[in-house]
Amino acid sequence: MSSNARYPAAAWFVSIAFAATALSYTHLPDLMPVHWDWHGQPDNYFPKWWVAWVVPIATAIVTAMLVWLLNPKRTSTIIVNAVAGLMCYFCGVSLYAA
Description:
Layout: H1 3-6, H2 8-24, E1 31-36, E2 42-47, H3 48-69, H4 74-97
Antiparallel strand pairs: 1-2
């Protein structure tokens, strides 16, 4: 059985993270803040091409590693899908905040 057949939700979450980034990429600022000081003011910026694609790529890598490392049991399926969903959520929050 292929990995996609065992983890359809995880595959959807990774796809959604990439699709959301691709759709919102043109609306992001050229420089995006990545660090804030004690007063809540941004003090470090990265180019948008770097910041925008870090979370979807990390989502894909972490999900692929979990699929590869964990045995195909019900518990591991829940873990893989939950981690992929949480990382997809982080992608959406970071894109919304930008």
